[in-house]
Amino acid sequence: MAVSSNAFPIFFKHLESRLNTRILDIGPVCGDNITLLARKVRQLYICDIFARIPKPVNPAPPSGRIWRHLDYEPDTFDGILIWNLLDRLDSDVVSNAGNHCRRILKPGGLVVAYALGEKELNAAVHAFVLSDSRKVSLRSQPHLDLALHTRTTRRLVEILAPLKLEQSSLFRNGLRELLFKKDVA
Amino acid sequence: MLRKNKNLKNDAELEPLAAPEPSAVSVEKTIIGENISIKGSIHGKGNLVIQGSVKGNIDLEKHHLTIGPNGNVEAEINAEHVTISGHLTGNIHARGKVEITRTAEFSGEIKAKRISVEDGAFLKAVIELHRDAQPGSLSKPSGLPSGLPGQEKDKPNLKSASAKGN
Fold it and tell me: Can you tell me the ipTM of this complex?
């Protein structure tokens, strides 16, 4: 079931006001999103963090080095898209997500983050498919076998605390959508 | 070893007495096999399929480059169309379309007119589409202020849509 995003109309409006827009999608790779987003910005960066998360084996290997893949210059992006990633990282790794996003985001830049419902039982990784610039639907990614770490919305906001929360939406299917902004100063 | 295939597009090859239609003209394709490694520049006026290993520059002008599932390429690429199913590190400049299949591993920049990507592809990429026919592009200034506009209301499928941190 598709939901109607509250964040993307704001996100795209924000991009309209900027020159030479660059946004970063950190996965999972979704062809529909790439096709749509690449036509809306000057440069679309893709860095699929999902493909770099260690698989859930016992004992789990360290996953703390995945942030090194976001080796972009500071203040590079007008926007960053985080689909389902915050549900998939170990606690010690996810806690650094906000700092890494803040570093590579331009002043005034936006982050759109999605998380599955707090009571989600389906552990499958999903791509969040964006269509018509605001409709968001889920598509299972069976090739990504990753552990689910369901986190409360409060915890998600804490994780991205280096950024300012602009908007939080909870949809009927439990899906959560968060919009953050980096301070201009 | 390099080898060439001639792919006839229709049943004309079954009727040797018939003169080939212009649309049935064979498309010459060169295949670099799995056991072949090439280091250097490749220039060509035909389609190329890489199943082996190539390091260098590839310039096919108005033709199609395919990197097969077992292909391993590290190159600057200039072609009309590019299809990636294998491993590619480098930059692509395509006048037409770039296709990335789910088995692909790509790292680099893509400049193309169109792009398609299958779920499951492994990407670290910068994608820049040609701007000549982009009516939906947001990359130009619109004169709008840079602040955030107000939130939209009345979303029927929302349980709630408010600034909160439960």
Answer: 0.88
Distance from the Cα of B136 to chain A's closest Cα (Å) equals 6
For chain B, domain boundaries = 27-132
Residues in chain A with CB shorter than 8 Å from the CB of B122 are: 29, 48, 51
A3-56+68-181 has which fold?
A: Rossmann fold (3.40.50)
Neighbour-count burial of A184, counting CB atoms closer than 10 A to its CB (0-12 exposed, 13-18 middle, 19+ buried):
exposed
CA distances from B80 to A60, A86, A145, A174, B111 (A): 44, 39, 36, 45, 11
Cα A138 from Cα A176, distance rounded (Å): 12
**Nearest-by-Cβ selection for B144 from A17, A38, A181:** A17
| pLDDT tens for each residue of A41-73 | 999 999 988 877 766 554 454 556 788 888 999
pLDDT tens for each residue of B128-161: 998 764 445 554 433 333 333 333 333 323 233 3
